[in-house]
Amino acid sequence: MDSDSRKVNGVTLNYVGGNEECEADTSQKYELKVQITCNPDQSTLKYINSEDDTCSVQLNYESKDSCPLFSLNQLAIFLNEYYYLWGAGLIIAGIFVGFFGNHLINGVIFLITATAVFALGTVGIYGILDSFNVETPEWANWVILGAMAILGLIVGYVVKKLRKIGIAIIAAWGGVMLGLALNGVFLVENEPVYYSIIVGCAIIVAVLAFKMEKVVIILVTSFTGAYSVVRGISLYAGGFPSLTQLHQEIKSGAMDWDEFPKTYYAYAGGILVLTLICVLYQRAHNKKKKGHH
Length: 293
Fold this sequence. Notes:
- The protein is α+β, with helices and mostly antiparallel strands and 293 residues long.
- The protein is 63% helix and 13% strand.
- The protein starts with a strand and ends with a helix.
């Protein structure tokens, strides 16, 4: 039995009759195909029709039970296709931010602001496209990513000149990443609670940045850099789902504790350890810098 839902919005099951050849055409084997199309309004399995020839029979049904609990959007599918590019980029950027965030603060403000604008803009555009069921060809995906990258670079350059605003953005972005990580660790399913944690963490960390600028910069850049490195490694090693994808799967019921990849906690531990290493390195570097003045 083979399950293949790529060619139909639902489920297709193929039953092949072993090694028995079809008498009418010996190049084929007897085959039964059961196709169940997704229909959210059909509560029970409903027979539609059948299609058959001498060697193959196809039975067509529809049911809400064949509708996906969760499916990747166009952006996730496109990004997954080129995981090796994003993985390398995340590792390199993470090392830069994690170890040199405080020392090269202007560069980090530029990089994180550009990344935030790129990420939020791209997610927003694909969210709109998906809501209208608009499918984009591969060249259009590259155009969208390129346009958002250019916009991110422009905004990053402008914000770099505004230090206080830039530091607030860095802190808020670090808070968003922390909120997403906490939601994943505790398997938060409730939508209001999920977003309250993200927004709350962003606001708290941004406010603290105005009170304890140096400390918050070191902590946030260390955590953000560590997360980026570990996320980049996971794109090659696997076992560490996207934090937003994880929430969608939990919310839809497609994933529970038994299905949850326990390797998530190993990666989370790796992020904590690498964050600590980055903090210690930045603090030591900061003390040396003070000693020279």
